[in-house]
Amino acid sequence: MRSSLRMLGGVAALSVAWTTLSGAQATHVVRLIADPAKQEYRFEPVALVVRPNDVVVFQVASGAPHSVVFEGAGLSPGVRGAINTAMPNRSGDLSSPLLTASGAEYRIVVPQLPAGAYPFYCLPHRAYDMRGQLTIK
Ligand SMILES: [Cu+2]
Questions:
Q1: How far is the CA of 94 from the centre of ligand 1 (A)?
Q2: pTM of this prediction?
Q3: Which of 13, 41, 47, 70 has the fewest CB atoms within 10 Å, i.e. the most exposed one?
């Protein structure tokens, strides 16, 4: 009993050390919303300030299908590669798969990128100006 308690303490200490080393990792939820009746097509929040290693969860709230496509203009090859690597199950360059189900989630761990603004849009609702932006600190 005494030794298992001591072990638990060790695990807790280890996880605190890890958190300190890696920096606090925050999780941000961005809801994807489309309501044709109201002419509403948006990411909510529309802009987000994040740090490398934070998690961004894009969550389909209504009006699927949606997607997340980062703007490629002006990105260096290294930055483009880092974003592509961070995006699971890509459907193309800088593009998430189509998120077809209500409640579907698409998770990205923010890669080590230069500070700055990284705009993105939803491909199915591009004509409706469904856009958002990650700002990396
Ligand atoms: Cu959309």
A1: 16
A2: 0.83
A3: 13
